[in-house]
Write a structure and sequence with these properties.
Layout (H helix, E strand, L loop, with lengths): L12 E5 L7 E6 L6 H5 L2 H4 L4 E6 L21 H18 L7 E6 L1 H12 L6 E5 L21 E7 L7 H13 L3 E7 L8 H15 L2
Parallel strand pairs: 2-3, 2-4, 4-5, 5-6, 6-7
Antiparallel strand pairs: 1-3
Helix pairs in contact: 3-4
């Protein structure tokens, strides 16, 4: 059987928090490899307030793309393009419910964080907030990252261990520089010796961004 050309098409979208039609802001949560929308939706009580809507898409097979985020160009297709397309559809859908991009936060962990950062860079505009937890921009070593548009002072949080087994520190540093160069207001925090995980300080930082975006 051949692989689907758009594997994440029709993905299940889980939600929590305020109904979109009544929400002051929305957070799109993007889960990591082998995890689920339900897993990352469990962060909602830690980073949101009652007037914020949370949406979490479920990757086909619990994986957004099959290989490393630093795999050779094209190796992760068509999964990567499908995943980016799903985020684009979700941002548009949230917008149609009355929540504009400047009140939408994109928050992802690990593979989901890489996807969120890359989506925002490729669709640069003023988002409410952007957070890549243990994440970096997608591309093979030596990629000359060149994106069009400006993040227009979008608050960007990036947190990662200095010895993360999946996310090289050099790519975190490089990604932070690229996003800052695109006009993002980047808060990068490196945690010595931490595992591949999310810590309390990161959750507090993301919660502050979400509260600011919602005007709380």
């Amino acid at each position: 059987m051949s692989e689907p050309t758009d594997p994440h098409s029709g993905a299940q979208i889980l939600s929590a928090g305020a109904p979109l039609e009544k929400a002051k802001a929305a957070v799109i949560l993007v889960h990591g490899r082998g995890a689920s929308a339900q897993d990352i939706l469990s962060l909602a009580p830690h980073i949101g307030t009652p007037d914020v809507a949370f949406l979490a898409p479920q990757a086909h097979g619990s994986t957004w793309y099959p290989y490393s985020f630093m795999a050779a160009a094209g190796a992760n297709e068509p999964w990567l393009s499908s995943a980016l397309g799903l985020l684009g559809w979700l941002v548009a859908d949230v917008g149609s419910a009355g929540v504009p991009p400047e009140r939408i936060a994109l928050v992802g962990f690990s593979q989901g964080g890489c996807l969120a950062l890359t989506f925002a860079a490729r669709t640069a505009q003023r988002y409410g907030a952007l957070a890549g937890l243990s994440a970096g921009l997608i591309g093979p070593p030596g990629t000359a990252f060149a994106f069009n548009g400006s993040l227009a002072s979008t608050p960007v949080f990036m947190g990662c261990s200095d010895i993360d087994p999946h996310i090289p520190l050099e790519r975190v540093e490089e990604s932070a520089g690229v996003l800052a160069g695109m006009g993002g207001t980047v808060d990068k925090r490196i945690y010595p010796g931490m595992g591949h995980m999310v810590n309390e300080e990161e959750l507090t930082a993301v919660a502050a961004l979400v509260a600011g975006m919602a005007g709380n």
